[in-house]
């Protein structure tokens, strides 16, 4: 039976199931090796989202939300049958090793229902549209999101436009590992960018910044807007800044359940860090900008940073998000 459940998890396709069968099969998704104890099972209305291979998103479904404990951490999984497309969507909310975790274990489960994601590598690609190419850049980003959906190793991909800099765009994408990032850099999206760069931006070779993800969280969402914050660390405070944006920031970020997607990154450029945040509504973004995460960052700014954080708001032109 576990083999059947695993196969259905990989394909993401099943016929719509009666509630009892769906519940049983959801419970089978906890491998016996974990020896997890189920602590809560609840029914919930879930949105089918981008991941449904049958309807392409937009469906609505019923599902179970399960939490199971494993000593040092817990794991949450959600399974549901999509009513619109009869395709099943199942998402890991966190990963949990059957072996004892050490201090370098990458992720912890959020105290809230917002999962912490396991992406570790990213790319940030700034794009400054040439005069007259604004609309063409937007079209390129929309096409890029469609291409990214076909890249199995590209976990999350966003095309964005800065609010106060009409000609300034960017691509931000995240990966589970270096292999996934390299696959993307040799894939169709990168090839299309290289071919179009000179025409759209005037740059013969696009600027591509490789970044390390220090911490992140992601949930099934349809982001429409966001904020990117650039930080320049003091040379003698780099380790402290890295720690602050990593494990120290996670519990504060988790409290903001209205912020579904969040990444703290370190760029290859010396002493440069960033925070990339996504929201579904302007009300959520305003709540965040007046909230604890921003207040905590500014509280530590004088000690950790060379200057004040550079905050840029943006709109999401297109996205491909898997959680």
Automatic annotation (TrEMBL):
It comes from the Eukaryota. Coiled coil: none annotated. Transmembrane segments: none annotated. Residues 225-314 form the ABM domain. SUPFAM superfamilies: Dimeric alpha+beta barrel. This is ABM domain-containing protein.
